[in-house]
Design a protein that fits this description.
The protein has 368 residues and is of the alpha/beta class. The chain contains 14 helices and 13 strands. Strand 8, helix 8 and strand 9 form a beta-alpha-beta unit. Helix 3 crosses helix 4 and helix 11 packs across helix 13.
């Protein structure tokens, strides 16, 4: 039996944060009791949910870049929790946990979960990572693409890095007619309208500008588009929508706590990312039987086999994306076929049960 303390850069509504929430709430408490959760940044939705469920949640409350003294604060929290394992998720949490490992009086094993977006970090932040990565006892990548990047580009030792692919809890679900009707009424969609949905932080990485440009080439189709998320690219994307006169067919509706419910309103799920690990939103869309059109980048082909359970396209190619979306818009049978195959893929390879079992085994292994 080992006590686990999770340290996450943030607890907002994101993919890594959702993995954190799943682990904190569903790992077998008899095997790995939860010592608590620490958020480096101000608390988000998942932190509030965890506290409501009785989990001890602490926060460093940082709205700035972490400093050395913040690692000391984290070390004091660790000393109070006395965990056997500290599991750190995302860049800032990982670096602070690595520093805290030499400051805390209570010894612990450190498990780190970096993501493929390390490639977008500055050279000096990667220097910090290089200097501190030796303090990890185990590194868990969410897909083979991330593992390969850590080994080949950042020099991580292969023996310490394992892959545990994300899993979702919607496998075998069917689309809720009630959820679908309610969300489509909210968007004021007509019966003949087909809704393309995308989910993610409004950031350049997610490629939503490509999706908007693709929609500009589909004005005569029945396709409408909704993008769920918030972030620094909002103003730019809003201007792009105005530039292409898409105000009546493309909507940015902000961050939603019930993304799974919104998935039921989609007819097609689109992931136009420029780079990506293995996003939960993609897996959830496949799990309820949605046809997906996704960029063929990084970890995405590990889940989507082009032409079998989804359609893969090159990133930043609006015309190519438009052809894929337009082709599905006029072929209901093809949409249904891809959706069934996608659902089978999730049920076979990306269940939440499988993911939890692999994390539990990893915690056991790191403690020897």
């Amino acid at each position: 039996m080992s006590r686990i303390l999770f340290v996450s850069t943030s607890t907002t509504l994101g993919g890594a944060e959702k993995t954190l929430y799943s682990l904190a709430t569903l790992i077998d408490p008899k095997r790995h009791p939860l010592a608590g959760v620490v958020s480096v940044k101000p608390e988000g939705d998942y932190a509030r949910r965890l506290r409501e469920q009785g989990t001890h949640v602490a926060t460093l409350g940082l709205a700035r870049a972490p400093r050395y003294d913040d690692a000391r604060r984290l070390a004091r929290i660790i000393d109070g929790a006395r965990p056997d394992v500290v599991h750190a998720l995302m860049y800032q949490a990982i670096q602070l946990a690595r520093l805290a490992k030499t400051m805390a009086r209570s010894p612990f094993k450190l498990v780190s979960s970096p993501r493929v977006n390390y490639r977008s970090r500055s050279w000096w932040s990667l220097l910090i990572d290089r200097a501190l990565k030796g303090r990890d006892d185990l590194v868990i990548a969410e897909c083979e693409a991330t593992r390969g990047f850590l080994l080949q580009k950042l020099g991580y030792p292969a023996a310490k890095v394992v892959t545990i692919r994300n899993g979702v809890d919607l496998a075998g679900w069917t689309v809720s007619k009630v959820e679908r009707q309610n969300r489509r009424l909210e968007l004021r969609l007509e019966a003949a309208d087909l809704l393309v949905g995308a989910v993610g932080r409004l950031d350049r990485q997610k490629g939503f500008a490509t999706l908007i440009r693709a929609m500009a080439q589909l004005k005569t189709s029945p396709l409408r588009c909704v993008i769920i998320g918030e972030g620094p690219e909002r103003a730019r994307l809003e201007e792009l929508i105005r530039h292409h006169a898409l105000e009546k067919s493309v909507w940015l509706i902000g961050e939603k706590p019930d993304v799974a419910g919104w998935l039921h309103s989609f007819d097609i799920f689109c992931l136009p990312s420029l780079w990506e690990g293995l996003p939960n939103a993609l897996l959830e869309a496949m799990a309820i039987g949605l046809p997906v059109v996704a960029s063929s980048v990084d970890g995405v082909p590990e889940a989507v086999a082009d032409g079998k359970d989804g359609i893969l396209v090159a990133p930043e190619r609006p015309a190519v994306l438009a052809r894929a979306l337009g082709g599905l818009a006029v072929d209901a049978a093809r949409r249904a076929e891809l959706g069934r195959a996608a659902q089978a893929t999730i049920a076979e390879r990306f269940t939440l049960r499988r993911m939890l079992a692999e994390y539990e085994a990893a915690y056991d292994a790191v403690l020897g």
